Amino acid sequence: MSEPLLTINNLYVAYGASAQSQVVKDVGFTLEGGKTIAIIGESGAGKTTLGLAIAGLLGRNASIDGQVTFDGKNLLALSEKAMCGIRGSGIGMIFQDPRGSLDPSMRVVDQVAEPLCLHQGLKLKEARGQARRLLAAVNISDEVIAVAPYAYQLSGGLCQRVMIAAALACNPKLLIADEPTSSLDLILQAQIIELLRERQKESGLGVIFVTHDLALVSKIADRIIVMHEGAIVEQGSVEAVIDNPTNPYTAGLVSVWTSARREGEGIASA
Amino acid sequence: MSSQKALSSAWEPAQSHGKLRAGILQRLVKNRMAIASLTLAGFIVMIALMVPLLPVQDPLLPDYDQIMQSPSGGHLLGTDLHGRDQLSRLLWASRTSLLVGVVATLMAVSAGIIIGGLAGYSGSMIDTLLMRVSDVSLSFPAILGAIAIMAILGPGRQNIFFAIALFTWPVFARLFRSTVLSVRERTFVQAARVLGASNMRIFMRHVMPNSAGPLVSYTAMAVAGAILAEAGLSFINLGVQRPNPSWGMMLAESMGQFEQAPWLILVPGTAVTMTALAFILMGTAVSRALDGNNTREYL
After folding, report:
1. Distance from A20 to chain B by nearest Cα, in Å?
2. Which of A165-169, B251-255, B283-287 has the lowest mean pLDDT?
3. CA nearest B201 in A: which residue?
4. pLDDT of residue B232
5. How many angstroms separate the CA of residue B17 from the nearest CA in chain A?
6. Quick one: which of B220, B228, B222 has its CA closest to B143?
7. What CATH class is the domain B27-53+79-291?
8. pLDDT tens digits, one per residue of B235-251
9. In a domain, A108, yes or no
């Protein structure tokens, strides 16, 4: 196997100067193409910040230190202009709030077409045609977008599919999914996951899946990274981490999940 | 068939939220005040556009045999101090009023969008600097500031545009800045960035259209403000140059003749009031129509 798709070494992110304000501490991992890494941890563990740091989306008041090597390039050394070229075409990202992620005053077709115009130099008209095909690939038909062209007219699940179509429009190699299913119900969640997996199989997409849903993680991830207070406390294969957590924090997370599941089963069988 | 049904159920509940553009129009049409103000403003604008085609008399031609005639068949609204036809002067003046109202407001809106957008979107030092400049401009009472500018530049149409716009833009800049500040933090801005859009593109394509709502309704009211300001400047002889007609100037010229010829005061006074009222009500109606939808959100 050649070089991994994404290598992160000693990544630190801090807001302000003092050591207490570090929100990501000494994070390092690698991701190979076609694989899925799940990052789990409680709210405020630095998961989202980590995702944003990889995509170069942290504001000027955040200081980043370390190495993020994507596809042979050190992302932290790139200019903003070069990052604009990579975002959307090399790295895609989807967020927790699908409806909020879509511009309310722009037709969703145009939003899927936007990365095509930006990265492949297509004219808006051609890009729209291709955007329609991309939407069809995520099971949104022309009829739906003809009747409901704007994001606020679509359900959350449809919005998230539009986001996926837009994020994957230019066939990026890496997708950072920041709790993409947290705001969706279980059936939609399953559909979205299925969609992502299909795309992954087709194109060898590497996925970083940020979530706090252990049940989901155990189904989709190849590796798990457990974060706590900005640092990685444990990482390894799904079986190793869930069945044999070595870190007490991970053990706590897992036991909460399993006991909740047992309770659920108890209620179901009663 | 069943797949079609499944499809339709996917968008039906969301669709009942209301349709975007149609929604705004429907709300406007349902609102009586909106209809009334749009009709009145539309009527005034139409008249102003058509004046050169109308069979009215020369507004500048004095006739000293017929001064201060009361309304009659020959002069529907009578004649003024110099025997000029009052109706003709009134109609020609409406062109000046509307032109000043629209152009000065457009200048102010453009400046407000550029300055407010730059301040809100870039933040930091530029924001502070631009907002202090707007503070300075706001600290003058607008009409006094405009008088000072006109006194320096001298009367004339271009100078009126400038004098009015100079004291109107800060309001637009502040309004636009505040919406930009909230819109730029929304998720879809980050989503656009993650698709590779540059700062400039994000601002033009995503931030600006979503911040325009409050500006639209305030613009109509600012037109009314500019029309009143022009009337005020012309009233004190710092606006339109004689002998060209202006409502403010018509009022000023007839002040002393109120008892002999009250129509000389009432007619231009009513014109100014009705025009300003039409635009103010239009602004209110538009802002209400916009309030009722969740598409171009603003705070």
Report:
1. 25
2. B283-287
3. A118
4. 92
5. 7
6. B228
7. mainly alpha
8. 998 888 888 899 999 99
9. yes
CB contact under 8 A, A153 and B198: no
Measure CB to CB from residue B17 to each of A92, A147, A153 and give the nearest one. A153
The distance of Cα B29 from the centroid of its chain, to the nearest Å, equals 21
Between CA A112 and CA A117 the distance in angstroms is 10
Q: Given a cut of 80, is residue B293 above it in pLDDT?
A: no
Residues in chain A within 8 Å Cβ distance of B191? 93-95, 101-102, 163, 166
Chain A residues whose CB is inside 8 A of the B187 CB are 95, 97, 100-101
Q: Residue A131 pairs with which residues in a beta bridge?
A: none
In a domain, A1, yes or no: no
pLDDT digits (tens, 9 = 90+) for B4-29: 444 444 443 333 334 445 567 777 77
Distance (Å) from the C-alpha of residue A241 to the closest C-alpha of chain B? Answer: 31
* Residue A90, domain extent: 6-269
Structure tokens at B164: 């009015």
Contact criterion met (CB below 8 Å) for A177 and A160: no
B210 reaches A (C-beta below 8 A)? yes
Give the relative orientation of helices B213-235 and B263-291 as an angle to the nearest 10 degrees: 170
Give the CATH number of the domain where residue A177 resides.
Answer: 3.40.50.300
Helix (H) or strand (E) holding A30: strand A22-31
Q: Which residues of B touch A210 (CB under 8 A)?
A: none
- Which range, B45-49, B141-145, B258-262, is most confident? B45-49
What's this model's pTM, rounded to 2 decimal places? 0.80
Q: What angle do CA B180, B186, B189 make, to 5 degrees?
A: 85
> What is the arithmetic mean of pLDDT over B211-240?
90
H helices present in chain B, as ranges: 2-15, 20-30, 32-50, 86-122, 124-139, 142-153, 157-166, 169-183, 187-194, 199-201, 208-211, 213-235, 247-254, 263-291
Q: Give the 3-state secondary structure of residue A227.
A: strand
Contact A97 B194 (CB under 8 A): no
Our count of domains for chain A comes to 1
pLDDT band at B91 (very low <50, low <70, confident <90, very high): very high
Q: What average pLDDT score do residues B128-143 get?
A: 90
